[in-house]
Every structure is written in C-alpha cells, then in structure tokens.
Design brief:
This protein is an alpha+beta fold. It is 30% helix and 18% strand.
C-alpha cells in the first residue's frame, strides 16, 4: 500500500493537497470526494473495489506497508506463480518462461479472507510465542544451574583457598616480628616458624588454583513447528479447467511388490506401497530402491502418511485393524481394532 494513503493520489499528481476519503485497491491510491465520484462513473474504474479510508486506520502498520507493485519493474502485481510461490507483474513473465502455473491473481485472492490461511497464520504465531516462552524458560534454568554449580565449586575449594591465604598472612606477620626482634635490645628473645617445604614449593610455583571450564552442549529443547506436524497449503490453488490439464510421465518405478492396493508419497520423497496378498508394507527410496519393509502384518489394503513420522495402514476385511507404523524407527508402533471393514483411508 502506498505510503501517502492519507492523500488523494489524483490530486497529489496535480500538486494539490487533498485528504482522501476512500481507498481504491485496484488503483492502489486514495481518492478525495470529488475524485471518488469521477472514479465511480468512469468506464475504466467503475468496477474497482473501494473502501472507506477510515478502515486503513484500523490496520497494523505492517499491513499498510505491504507493497502491491513489483519492486523490480514498478508495475502492479497481476499474476501469481504457484511454482515459486511469488507475485508477478507482466514483465516478470519474462523470467518465468518455464512456469506453467502462472495464474491470474484475482483467482488466487478470491475468498482468501475466509480461507484457512488466516487460521494457519494465527496458529503459527501462537506457536512462535510458545516456543519463545519455552526457550526463555530453558535459558533461565541454565542460568540457575550455572549459579548453583558456581556455589558448589566455591564451597568445595573454600578450605584450600583460606589455607593458602592464611599461610601468606603468617609469612607477612613473621617478617614484621623478625624486624622488631632485630632492633630489640634483648637478644634473648627468639621466635621461629618453619613452613612445610611442600607448602613453600606450592606457594612459589602456583600461578592459579584451577580453571573454570565452560562448555556448550545441546540443551535437548525441541522447537515445535506446526508445518512439521501438518503440511497445509497457505494459499489454495485456483480451480483449473480439466481440459487444459496435461499429464507427463516423470518416472517409472518397478516395485517388485505384487497385488498393490494402496500407495502414498512421504514428505521426504519416499514411497509406500501396501501388498494385500504378501501381507506387507514396502517403503521405497525416491530412486526406487527398497528402504525397509514391514512383513506379516495381515492383508494390507490402503496406506496414508498421518504425520509424526507415522503411516496408517488399513486391512479391509482381513482383520478389521489399522496398523500404525513408525517410518523413522522402521517398526510397528501400535495396532487399532475398529470392529468393521476398513478399506480406503485419507
């Protein structure tokens, strides 16, 4: 949104300062009362969407500063590239020649205010706040641990330190007494003090009592990410006409698995196939080679990725069970009895 949204854009172009009363989203500028009427009856602009300028005062500053024109070509955004997830102006098309998913932005933004995008953003922000609180708490615990460790070290070595300082003080006191005795007229007075040779050697060579070692180890705090648990598209792709769709064979993979009833693509590119007759689930790498298999789990029917590094495998009428398999540890996590036939799963 333009920075001078409080002023009428048309009047400002003619070097006339007039306050705007409405905002035109198509023209991306404010309009005063007179310009608004001309804008409303003009053939080119009569269908433009406008809103009271007072609504802008309710918007956060970050929203008002969002640019609606291309920063490179200084032209209005008109297209959206689904492949690169970015807005494009007409001149941007020159660098998106290989992109087949360039879509009219009006199709993309249709019903966006009622879409799942706002809910997802809100949940993501709440998640960020929660992670910051958890990090702050973890750092406070670490500081408390350091303080306690410091006290333990001080308590453990306090006696050695006091002994060392006491010895040094005795040496100073003896030196003073010896000087007094030497000047005394009574030569019979004697005083002596023999310091343990080990301590004398210690005080002569010691440079420091020890070292405080500071290490930095992983705290084990895991940061929660909503998108790791649930991959959802923030902007729903527009409805396409089926006659315009083209299908291209990308890759052919020989699974060597018979009677395949279900398949699923994992987020990391691996593929899962369920074999009903062989009673197993096969997980293949993206190149088609076997990653791992789970055997003897009954007649497997359909399979789907459910998040948290797990897949769910149905069994149709074979056992009326749904098996949950951990694809990170490559093992069966649990079995759920559903007391009914279960075929497809999504």
């Amino acid at each position: 949104m333009a920075s001078n949204w409080k002023l009428c854009g048309i009047c400002d172009y003619h070097q006339i300062i007039t306050s705007s009363v409405v905002w035109c989203f198509e023209c991306d500028e404010g309009l005063c009362g007179d310009c608004k009427e001309y804008h409303r009856i003009s053939e080119e602009t009569k269908d433009h969407e406008i809103a009271p300028i007072a609504d802008n005062y309710k918007l956060p500053t970050d929203v008002l500063q969002v640019a609606q024109v291309c920063k490179i070509h200084d032209e209005k955004y008109e297209l959206f590239c689904i492949k690169h997830d970015c807005l494009c102006c007409k001149k941007c098309v020159q660098i998106h020649t290989d992109c087949i998913d360039l879509t009219d932005i009006n199709e993309i933004i249709k019903n966006v205010k009622t879409s799942n995008a706002f809910y997802e953003i809100e949940q993501t922000w709440l998640e960020v706040v929660e992670n910051i609180k958890r990090i702050s708490g973890n750092r406070e615990d670490n500081l408390k641990w350091l303080e306690n460790k410091k006290r333990e070290i001080e308590a453990e070595h306090a006696s050695e330190l006091h002994a060392f300082l006491f010895i040094k003080q005795i040496e100073k006191d003896i030196a003073v007494e010896e000087s007094v005795i030497k000047t005394d007229v009574l030569n019979q007075t004697k005083i002596s003090c023999e310091i343990n040779k080990s301590l004398q050697q210690l005080t002569a060579i010691i440079q420091k009592f020890g070292e405080i070692n500071v290490s930095s180890d992983p705290c084990g705090l895991s940061i929660q990410k909503r998108k790791d648990r649930q991959a959802q598209i923030m902007v729903a792709p527009p409805t396409r006409i089926i006659d315009r769709l083209t299908v291209t064979l990308q890759k052919r993979i020989t699974t060597e698995v018979s009677n395949v009833r279900g398949c699923s693509i994992l987020p990391d590119g691996r593929m899962v196939f369920s074999s009903f007759s062989e009673q197993k689930v096969s997980v293949l790498k993206s190149d088609g080679s076997i990653d791992f298999e789970i055997n003897n789990i009954g007649g497997t029917f359909d399979v789907v990725f459910i998040g948290n590094d797990c897949i769910a495998v149905t069994s149709s009428s074979f056992s009326n069970e749904i098996n949950i398999i951990d694809i990170r540890k490559n093992k069966l996590r649990k079995t759920i009895t559903v007391h009914s036939n279960n075929d497809g799963v999504a």
